[in-house]
Model the fold of this input.
Amino acid sequence: MSGEDRPDGHTDGGTEQTPEAGGPTDGTDGSRFAPADRVASVAPSGIREFFEVAETRDDVISLGVGEPDFTAPWPARSAAVNSLERGRTSYTANRGTEELRRAIAERVTRYDQTYDPAEEILVTTGASEAVDLAFRAFVNPGDTVALPTPTYVSYEPGVRFAGGEPLPVHTRHEDDWALTTEALYDAGVDEADVLVLCYPNNPTGATMDASEMDAVADFCREHDLLVVADEIYAALTYDGDHESVATRPGMRERTVVINGFSKAYAMTGLRLGYAMGPPDAVDAMTKIHQYTMLSAPTTAQHAALAALDRCDDDVDRMRREYDRRRRYVVSRLRELGLPVAEPGGAFYAFPRVADVAPDGDARAFATDLLEAEGVAAVPGTAFGTGGEGHIRISYATGLDDLKEAMARLERFLS
Amino acid sequence: MDEATRTLIDALVADARESTADLARQTGLEEAAVETALAELEESGALRGYTAIVDWDELDEEHISAIVEVNVELDRETDYDDVARRIAESEAVDSLRLMSGDYDFAVHVSGSSMGDVSRFVSEEVAPLPAVTKTVTHYVMETYKERGIAFTDGDDDDRLSVTP
Done:
């Protein structure tokens, strides 16, 4: 519904109204910019809200950062600069440059994924766009989209924007956040239309082992689920190799795999991701992409190609450094009496603070920790109801800061 | 080399003052195992020492350093190792390397004055019979040393909380 259809419209519509800010959500406030229902129904990101609090302090050690603390490797940056110097500032093909799609196809063979660069790969403006495209392309109004929780903050809003109904599937600390078929049945996923998988997981760092993945794949085939597999942290897997659900028998034809350059290559600001799937899946997503983005940023595509060609050593160096910090942080958290599952990938630890938080409330814990000690960690509830009683700690920050943050946390807990 | 040992070395290269407890946390080894691994690395000569990286400009102390290129001409009685041993004896020498290219040895020397450095070159290197030429380059500014950048290092411009 446009603003013009509303009664008593006025022109000071710049003020943001959100449910949590106490603003009306039904579009009857008279603003010309009262959002559509599916937009109004979505609460602002719990991360953003916490960010605004953290920004008010200047002595904060932030463990709330979901991006690498490294800079994109020089060959990638250099390729971006070079592309600009040569004046390569035009659109590319909707699906991305052929060269980059070929390089992506070659790269993902390390995860046993085989995709035809001509028909089965779409380069997107960040993996985030790919996730949004998948929801918009395959979720009909009223479709049920199962989301293991806790999980990345954008899935639930994305599903709602697409008109779907999110269905939370609780994973548990006690199971090391593994997604079990029991949890899938308990949540009623056997009746759902789509299942979203994010492994390695943000915020828990959980990965799937082979048997867990086999079981989830069996479940998806049996109940005819379409799967959106967000594998943006695939390159940051610490114990063993990353495995994709799409490699399981009968899964490739029902799975959209999403990956990108932000996390592995420290290229968050260049906004480049990709989606892979059977031709009809990629065709549908490309249709939306070509009418909205047209093509991913050309400069970033040149950087990405260089990243794939020449930055393997950089990725390995960064992964080793994250791994070292991972061990340190997990070890310190456990010494401080905060139970934490061993993260197998990504760069997050997700300790339980319910036992030491006021009324078991992780949000209050995070707020108090920020206020008392200047340490910003994101309350687990930002990642869905499954995150209650936990906080997310990012170890994408230098070891010196991590040590200081852990010392402050120890003081806070004592 | 196993993964834990590699992690141990990474940790020490980043910060040689890491405590055994912190090294244990980063490698996943027990503290006793860290001690043993360190002893073995020292014993084998893989770990040669633990030194500080100093930004002398931050101290009220004159400190001059230079890189001296040294060309030599060998004879039947003298090889590179002989010349190197002789040069390395000087306290002024921080590092000494045999190089490929236009000269033979790169000598990193330091002293409290330019006089110290030039005396080292003129009295301890140039007179050696094998040495045919020296070229001395004084260090004007240090921007990075052994992986440590000489900036304030406090330039994290990321947002404090992100997805």
